[in-house]
Amino acid sequence: MMASSDAESLCTPALTADAMRAADRYTIDEYGLPSFTLMETAGRGCAEHIQDAYGPLENEAVVVLCGKGNNGGDGLVVARHLLIEGTRVHVVLASAPDALSDDAAHNLSLLRQLEANGTAGERLTIGTLEGLNALTEAVAPLRPCLYVDALLGTGLTSDVREPIRGLVTWVNEREVPTVALDVPTGLHSDTGAVLGVAVRADRTVTMAAPKVGLRVGEGPTRAGTVEVVDIGMPPFVLDRAAEKTGCARETTDAAVQAWWPAREDDAYKYSVGTALVIGGAPQFTGAPVMAAKAAGRSGAGYVRCAGPETIHSTLAGALTTIPTLPLPTADGNGIDPDAAPDALADAADTADALLVGPGLGRAPGTAQFVRRLVRTADTPLVLDADGLNALSGHIDELAGQRQAPWVLTPHAGEFRRLAGEEGTLTDRVRVAQTYAERWDAVCLLKGMPSVVAGPGGRTFLGSITTPALATAGTGDVLAGQCVGLMAQGVSPLNAAAAALHVGGAAAERYGATHDPRSMVATDLLDTIPRVAAERFGDGHRQN
C-alpha cells in the first residue's frame, strides 16, 4: 500500500484565492516565471479550451467582457488568440483603459497593435462600457455565438457593485453560452456563495487548479463544466499551497487504489480486518443491515452486527452471511446502558474498528449506552446518525475523554446539533477543518460535495457528485464502507475519503445504465464490487 503522503499527491488540489495568490507569488518571485508569461499561458490555454468546446470559431463572433485586473488581462489574451484563429472578436472594457493592471494594459496594447497594423482586418472591435443599452446595440449586429466572462475572477469577498452588477445580469440574459475565466464573476471563490449576483456560466476554464468555490455552495450550478488550464506552475508549488486553511484535495481513482489494501495469497478472514456494526431500533432495522453489508463489500473479512434484542431475529434473518449479536434492552428505554456493555465486550475487544449509530434511535438508554461506549472503547470508531445525536451536548467533554480515533459522519442537521449555534455552514471546508481540529476527529461533513477533514488540517473533497445519491440509506452504506476500510488498517482520514469516492463511483456507474431517480441504497451494495474491479484494480497481491 502506498504511503499516505504519496497517495495524497494523486489528489488534485482545490485552492482558495489566498492560496492561489501565494502560489502565483512563489512562481513569480522564487521560481522565476514572469507574471506576464503566466497570463499569456493562461489566456492561450483558455482560448484552446474554448475552441475545443465550441469551435471551429472562424468567422464566428465572440464577445469578451474584461475587467481591469488580471482576470481582464486573461480575457484580452483570449481575445487575441481567438482573433489570430479567425474569430470576429468584440472586446468590452468594463473600466477606463488607464485603470487596467500593468499586465492587462500590456495585453490591450498588443491587441491594439493588431488593430493598427491591419492584421485583424475588420474582425476586431474594442469598446468601453457606456451603458447596457449601448452595449446591446453594439453587439446585436454581430450575432455572437459566445460570451467570455473575464470581469472579476478570484478574490471577490463583497457584493458585486455597479457597473459590473448590471453587466452580470445582462450577460445572464443572453441566449448563447457564456464561458467564465477562473471563476464566474460574482461567485465567492472560496465558499461558492453568490455575492449579490453571479454569472451563470455554461463552462468555466480555471487556472492552474480548481478553486474551492467552484466545487461547493452554488459553485457547481454557476460554473457549469469546469476545465483546468496548466499555466506552467510546478506541481510542488500547488501541493504546498493546498496545505493552507480552506484548501482541500479532490479524491481520485488513483488515490483510492493506493489506499485500499490488496489481499495477499495467504489472506484469511481475520487477517483482512474485523468490523463491528452497532445499530438498529424497531423502526429502523434496515440501516444496520446495509451498513454491515457495506463493511463486507469494502473488504473487511469478518463483520458482526449488534443490535437491540427486540430486533435480533429481524437482523439475523436479513444478515445470512454476517453474525449478529443481541443487546439487552430496558422496557421503553432502548438499549440497557448497564447490561449491554458486558454483552458486547468480547465482540468489541476482537474488532479492529467499530461503527456506532445506524438506525439506533434516540431512546434515553440507547443514548446513554453510546456515550459510555465512546468513552471507554479503545478501538477506532465511526459515529453515524443516532450515534452522533447521542453526543449532542456532550461532544466536547467526550472528545477529551475518549481513548481511540473517531470518524464523525454528520449531515447538515446532525452537524448543527453537534456544534450548536456556532455551527454555520457558509464555508463548508473551513467549518469541517475547524471542528475536526476542535474535536480531534475526522469530520466527514456530508453534502454535495461532502468534505472530509482531519484534525491536522488535511482535507478532501468528494469529486463525484450525482443525483442518484439523493435517496435514503446511502449514509448507512457510506458509514459501513468507512468501518470496513478502517478494519483493514486504512487510516481514519483516508478510509473516509476512499469510502466517499467509492460510493460516488458506484452511484455514477448505476446512473450510467439506469435512471438515477430509480436508485435505492441497496443498489450501491450490488454495484460496489463491479466498480471496484473496473476502477480500483483487482485487489489481489501475490506473495
Structure explained in plain terms:
The protein is an alpha/beta fold and 543 residues long. The protein has two domains: 17-243, YjeF N-terminal domain (Rossmann fold); 253-261 and 272-536, UDP-N-acetylmuramoyl-L-alanine:D-glutamate ligase. It has 22 helices and 22 strands. It has an eleven-stranded mixed beta sheet, with helices on both faces. β5 (146-150), α7 (164-172) and β6 form a beta-alpha-beta unit. The longest helix has 22 residues, at 492-513. It is elongated. The two termini are 14 Å apart. The model has no long low-confidence stretch (mean pLDDT 94).
Topology:
Blueprint: H1 4-8, E1 12-14, H2 17-29, H3 35-54, E2 61-66, H4 70-84, E3 88-93, H5 102-116, E4 124-128, H6 132-139, E5 146-150, H7 164-172, E6 178-181, E7 203-207, H8 212-215, H9 219-223, E8 225-229, H10 235-241, E9 248-250, H11 253-259, E10 263-264, E11 274-278, H12 286-297, E12 302-308, H13 312-318, E13 324-327, E14 329-330, E15 334-335, H14 340-350, E16 353-356, H15 364-376, E17 381-383, H16 386-389, H17 395-401, E18 406-408, H18 412-419, H19 428-439, E19 442-445, E20 451-453, E21 459-461, H20 474-487, H21 492-513, H22 521-535, E22 540-541
Parallel strand pairs: 2-3, 2-5, 3-4, 5-6, 6-7, 7-8, 9-21, 10-22, 11-12, 11-16, 12-13, 16-17, 17-18, 18-19
Antiparallel strand pairs: 1-9, 14-15, 19-20, 20-21
